Each structure stands twice: as structure tokens, then as C-alpha cells.
Amino acid sequence: MNKYTVIIIGIIAIMYISTTHSETIDETQSDDQQIQNGKNSGTTELDEIWKEDSKKIFQLISHLRQYRTNYKDSSIQADHRKRQMIKELSKANKSFKGTTLSLKSVRVNDVDQEKVLTEYGISYAIKVINKLRKDPGSKGLFGDDDIRDNPFLQLIVGFQLVKCKKCFRNTGRYNVKCEIPIPSSSADNYNNSNYKQFEDGIFTGIIENDNRDKTIKTEIIFVINSKEEALKISKDSIMPISGKIKQIFYKGSRFSEDLTIKLE
């Protein structure tokens, strides 16, 4: 039962986060001021910060990109990629869990209430996991590693629970959901910053076919305990964050890639 309890706490992989976070915002206000002042000296400094932050993030998942789905794959090739992705992502979570990740510039997308599973939700999640275990078509989801380190399985179970109102309760803490802003060569009149308004993601150093820089859409999620602090954070705020990696989730194809990192 203890084993199941651990995985179902992590089940809310993309939708919610079940960890606590120290007063990161207060600790990094000096860095925040430095970022805000960057617009007074052009985008060169912001570009350097973007690439520095991106490098820290990209090195966590660069080795996983070889297992992205490919529409040219045969059925057996696709199945092999899927199994390898699950295996290697589980290894990455084991390797990087507890590692400190400090970023100088993230942009807030939203702040909402953190949720965890209720007793009913835990029971429901166990039923879903057991059902998947018995399904021959789902056996590949479990891989060879501990299910507690398998974000793919947690995500799938999470989707089964997301519409279940009885499955979740508020914790009294708050999720701060952020993206990686991309510097712009000209000021954005909408929010008076040197960041692109409708684009975000990490720099990879890869040039795509249309000669544009390849970026990977990235979400960073961390939790704060104080409602007072949560009320101070508005959408589009630019700030630094620092915390220990709780979980990494990555999925990719030839045309798109998505990464979510949860911090505690």
C-alpha cells in the first residue's frame, strides 16, 4: 500500500504538484531586480540569461530526444521507442531527483491552488493502475523500473482522475506555474518588456529547416505556502526561481516537444 501511496501522490504529474517549497521568491529578489533592469541595457544580457537557463534545463533531457516519436516508424520501431523513452525517463528522474535547479528568468503563467488526492482518489487510482496492469496493451507503460519513477504511467492515471471532483482536495498551498520567456529584439508594447509575448521555450542551439532556432516548450512548477505571497504574484511577472527537482516529464515528436519540471 505504501508503494501505491507514493506513486499516486505523483500521479498529478502535469495538472498538479504535491510538494512544498521554501521562500524562494524572497531569497531571490535581488536577482529579480537585475532581470527587470535588463531592459535598460538592450537584450544582450537577457539573451545570455536565456541561454544560460536553457542550457541547465536542456542537459536534463537532451539524451531523451532520440526516442521521440517518428511518423516514419514501423509498429515495432514505435513500440521500441516508447519502451526506451519510459525506461530512460525513469532513469533521468532517479538521477536528477533532489538536484538543485536555479533559473534567473521565468515568466508566470498562473497561480492556483495545489491539490492532492483524497482517500477516495487514492482508492480510485489503485483500481486504475491494477486495470492497466491486466491490459496486455498497457504492459509497456510499466517498463522495467519502479512505477514510482515512471511519470508516463502517473500522467495516464492522472488523466483518468482529472474529472473526478471527489478525488482531489485543496492543501492550502499554491502552485506557481511558469514558462521560459524568449528575449525579443524590440520592446513588446503589450507588456513593456524585452520578451516575446506569444513565444516561450528553452534555447537548444539546434537550427530547424526554416533557419529558426529550435526551442522546447517548458513549464516550471513550484509551490509556495503563503497565500499572502501568492496574492503578490501576477501573470506575466518575470522572476528568478530556485529549488530541488522533484520530477521531470518529457514527451516529443518530430514536430513538437514538451517538458515539465516540478521543483520542491
Description:
By secondary structure, the protein is α+β, with helices and mostly antiparallel strands. It has one domain. Helix content is 35%, strand content 33%. It contains eight helices and eight strands; from the N terminus they run αααααβααβββββαββ. The strands form two sheets. Strands 1-2-6-8-7 form a five-stranded mixed beta barrel, surrounded by four helices. A two-stranded antiparallel sheet has the order 3-4. A hairpin with a 5-residue loop joins strand 5 and strand 6 (213-224). Helix 6 (119-134) crosses helix 7 (151-161). The protein is globular. The chain starts with a helix and ends with a strand. Residues 1-9 and 11-41 have low confidence and may be disordered.
Question: What does the radius of gyration come to?
Answer: 19 Å
C-alpha termini separation: 24 Å
Biggest sheet statistics? 5 strands, mixed, barrel
Structural class: alpha+beta
**Overall tally of domains:** 1
The overall strand count is: 8
Overall form: globular
- Uncertain stretches: 1-9, 11-41
